[in-house]
Specification:
single chain, three-stranded antiparallel beta sheet, 16 helices, 6 strands, 8% strand, globular
Amino acid sequence: MTDLHRQRFFEQIGILFGREPKKPVEISERAQQVHELKRMANKVEVRKTIMLAHEKPHKNTWRNRRWAVLIAVNLFFTVSFGLDIQILEGSLTASRFIGFHLIDLNSALQVMLAHKHIIVNLLIGTMTVLVLWMLLGGRTFCSWVCPYHLLAEWAEKLHLWLARKKLVNDQNMNRRLRSAFWVVFALATFGSGYTVFEAISPTGILSRALIYGPGVALLWVLALLLFEVVISRRAWCRYACPIGLTYGVVGILSPVRIKYKLEGCFHEGDCRKVCLVPHVLETVVKGRAVDTEVTLGPDCTRCGLCVDTCPTGSLTFDIKGLSKLL
């Protein structure tokens, strides 16, 4: 790893914990040459090329795949319980798949903090989950499995429609709040001996409601969605939920990532408009890419919306060490 890539690596970790992206100080010579060529390019010709690129039919390939996987995973829990086939038991918080225990990493941490000691059986149950999300990386759990993420995505569409009608305004918050909430939930659990976050986690509430039936806790989920529609879109996922932060940290070194290629990008910004966490796409802003190929950081949810939207194919899914062989 070069000094430039090491610097970017630590910068991306800082962004995961809430630091705002900064304009890079050091840029590779190759990237500088591409940036300079783009500054010298004929603007009229560039606009024509952008218009031609946008004439291609827009596909929602990755979004559709992601929605299908998310719905299938959550329905599998419901069907297994409803038909009593005992293939997948439990919920997203803790489950058992054909005998293998699967425990959410954040939930396992909450339980051990509440009991104030390391529970060996709990650690064993987290290993499969840990390895899975280490390989898939980023906040893949959020966009591909979490049921609240899907509802929040739909709520965001409603928010944006209302914003276009000038009926609501989006209120941005400090992204460091998520790290602060992670600490607050951990300390509250350790001090009270009760898994505080699990009581209000919309992920757990929705998962249990789908499997065992709705309860009064769904009112809390509805309140969160209403807040996101009227005041701040994606507020829970962006500024509060510790699950995303936990999985982001776990997946820092994942081989699965989204790669950005500088040469073909027109910097028209379509990808940032659809991105669920637009700060991870700071590198696509004109003049910001530190190299000709840059991978997105661990706060990326791997949702694929930017890949679907990019008219030039400058954003693609990539598997480190394998993509060039395929």
